Amino acid sequence: MKPARIIVGVLFLAVLVSNLLAISRWNESRGVYDDVCYLRQAHLFQRFGLAGFDTDIARDDDRYFAGKLRDIGYERWADTQKAPCHTRPAKTGKLVLQYPPGTGAVLALFPAGFQVIPLYVVANLVAFAFALMALFRASSSVMLTLAGSFGLASLYLMINPTKASYSMAPTMIICAVAGFLSARLFASALSRERLWLAVATGLLIGLSAAFRLPNLFLSAGYGIFFLVVFLRAPSRQTFLEGFAFGAAFLIGIAPTLAANWINAGSPFATTYGAVDVVAPGLDATVLRSYLVDVQLFLLVAAIAWTAAIWHRPGVGQVALVVAANLAVNIVFFMTHPVFTPYYTIPISMLSLWTLLLATLAPRDETADNPVRTRPADA
Predict the structure, then answer these.
(1) How many CB atoms lie within 10 A of CB 239?
(2) Exposed e or buried b per residue across 250-270, where buried means at least 16 C-beta atoms within 10 angstroms of its C-beta
(3) What is the pLDDT of residue 368?
(4) Cβ-count burial of 355 within 10 angstroms (0-12 exposed, 13-18 middle, 19+ buried)?
(5) Which residues pair with 87 in a beta bridge?
(6) Which positions ≥6 away from 217 have C-beta within 8 Å?
(7) Mean pLDDT, the chain, as a whole number?
């Protein structure tokens, strides 16, 4: 096993180095409107601190955004009223960025002009670290093959399609960390540990919405699970676990709600444009796009993996959560009128990281029955 681990680890390192070399040659002005809009949000945070939540185009008095648009060849760069990826919510009347604040806030951690490269380097290093952790947890040749295959795939995905949107880099970090915490949460039979893991997982899932608003749906499976478990076996422990997750989730989405309030006039009003808020419905073009995209393969892999471990001891709770999460997210994105090469990547990666780490973890059959959860000092 040790030589095989070393060989696979070297392969991980080779893919990581290849990714980092590719990232080092990236240009922040690649001609994509979303890119410069995320950089505008980062500039607002660097310039105004927390007041950078207000993305009113009138605050571009230093012409930073106009200059970015000019650099990518946008013809109406000098006309602030024609700014791309901005909308005008009825309640405020301001022309504001449509995106939640998280991606800009993360980019603001790095120096202006050198923000995208370090963000993607960090994201790749996180994926590499979790892939190595899974590799060294493998206890058999089958598990080693599973960990190695997924590790290589996850590292490849850190370039394509993750590079398609700056919001995907921090989202991929959240998916890996939340997958690890979820596997720990539903494998644990210790009351206190489960509570803290529920808090950490809920907080991360909530924060993920600050990077991409549809990441809100990543919480669906957890919410359904905690509700069903409590209704089937009401107890102080099952209530506290669900409450802990829900309260932490609300804290996590607070930055997104604050940004909505400031820019759209209400915490529950969206800054997105009309095409993103139309009623759901089946669109043959969207469905066909998924059928020929790598996203379908990842979703099928997650579904098949969930079915394969459904009746295995110690992973029943994980299977239920992942199944519910996949169902809700698949329905949402397959009925959403817009297709991109990364829309379903977050639910796929959260599910696959959770399934991998749960499959590799030592079995504890009592974790599948919340009613039998042992006390914290057991």
Answers:
(1) 13
(2) eebbebbbbbbbbbbeeeeeb
(3) 61
(4) buried
(5) 96
(6) 328, 329, 332, 347
(7) 92
Q: Is the peptide bond before 161 cis (omega within 30 degrees of 0)?
A: yes
Query: Which residue type does 210 have?
Result: A
Q: Half-sphere exposure of residue 232, counting CA atoms within 13 Å on the CB side?
A: 9
Within 8 A by CB and 6+ apart from 349, the residues are 154, 157, 172, 175, 176, 179, 298
Lookup: tokens for 333? 């994105």
Separation CA 374–CA 45 (nearest Å)? 46
Q: Within 10 A of 21 (CB to CB), how many other CB atoms are there?
A: 9
Residue with tokens 């009592």: 366
Of 46, 162, 34, 43, the residue nearest 98 (C-alpha) = 34
3-state class (DSSP) for residue 256: helix
For the chain, helix (H) and strand (E) counts, in that order, are: 15, 2
Look at residue 35 and tell me whether its pLDDT is greater than 90. yes
pTM above 0.85, yes or no: yes
Contacts with 351 (C-beta within 8 Å, 6 or more apart), sequence order: 179, 302, 305, 306, 322, 325, 326
Reading the block at residue 50, the tokens are 């927390």
Given a contact cutoff of 8 angstroms between Cβ atoms, the answer to whether 211 and 172 are in contact is no
Which helix H or strand E contains 87, and what residues bound it?
strand 86-87
Rounded Cα distance between 235 and 378, Å, is 19
Question: Are 170 and 212 a contacting pair, CB within 8 Å?
Answer: no
Tell me whether the omega of the peptide bond preceding residue 170 falls within 30 degrees of 0, making it cis: no
192, β-bridge pairs: none
Check if the beta carbon of residue 142 is closer than 8 Å to that of residue 360. Answer: no
Spatial contact of 306 and 121, defined as CB atoms under 8 Å apart: no
Q: Distance between CA 374 and CA 203 in Å, rounded?
A: 24
Provide mean pLDDT across the span 293-313.
94
Contact 202, 249 (CB under 8 A): yes
pLDDT digits (tens, 9 = 90+) for 250-297: 999 999 999 999 999 999 999 987 666 666 777 888 889 999 899 999
Q: For residues 133, 138, 139 and 143, what is the CA-based torsion angle, rounded to 10 degrees?
A: 170
Up-side HSE of residue 230: CA atoms within 13 Å toward CB? 14
Task: List Cβ neighbours of 140 (8 Å cut-off, separation of 6 or more).
Answer: none
